[in-house]
Amino acid sequence: MEKEDKFVERILWSIALPGFGQILNGKLLKGILFIALEFMINLNSHFNEIIRLSFIGEIEDSITQTNYQWLMFYPCIYFFAMWDAFKDAGGGKEPYSYLPFVSSAYFVTLGIMYSTNIKLFGIILGTVWFPMICVIPGLIIGFSLKNIIKKKKCN
């Protein structure tokens, strides 16, 4: 398997469930810890029910089901697990390659905090859709910062 394919595989498995990428990298204890954290946060925040309700259009019900004190932990665990799996697979050798992951975690966390106030075409997006949209500016800013810092270091 080519190096780039290995990185992508680890990230995709980490997106499916934090900890799977670590297990593929042979880091069993770390993988089990991420899976346990994901389950604990998922259960306490009611995340699966929030996702289900959001997908069937019951946004108001999903908002009332949300335990924000727990859900706000999820983006950091989620993006850190992706970064860690990528790094352990041999990625992350390029300077500042962690910035898109960190920036996305910040923006998704902010997305959760403001998810009940943001409307698109008069519709509240809720605790699933708006934070998912927040990944886009997180990645754009993270990659931009990475490139800006690298250029400044080279000069």
What does the model show?
With 155 residues, the protein is mainly alpha-helical. The chain has one domain (3-154). Helix content is 75%, strand content 3%. The chain has 10 helices and 2 strands. It has a two-stranded antiparallel sheet. The longest helix has 20 residues, at 135-154. 35% of the residues are buried.
Summarize the SSE layout with pairings.
Elements: H1 3-16, H2 20-24, H3 28-45, H4 47-55, H5 59-65, H6 68-71, H7 74-88, H8 99-114, E1 119-120, E2 123-124, H9 126-133, H10 135-154
Antiparallel strand pairs: 1-2
Order of helices and strands: HHHHHHHHEEHH
* Overall 3D shape: globular
User: How many helical stretches?
Assistant: 10
Distance between the termini: 36 Å
Quick tags:
mainly alpha, 155 residues, globular, single chain, two-stranded antiparallel ribbon, 10 helices, 2 strands
Task: Give the gist of this structure.
By secondary structure, the chain is an all-alpha fold.
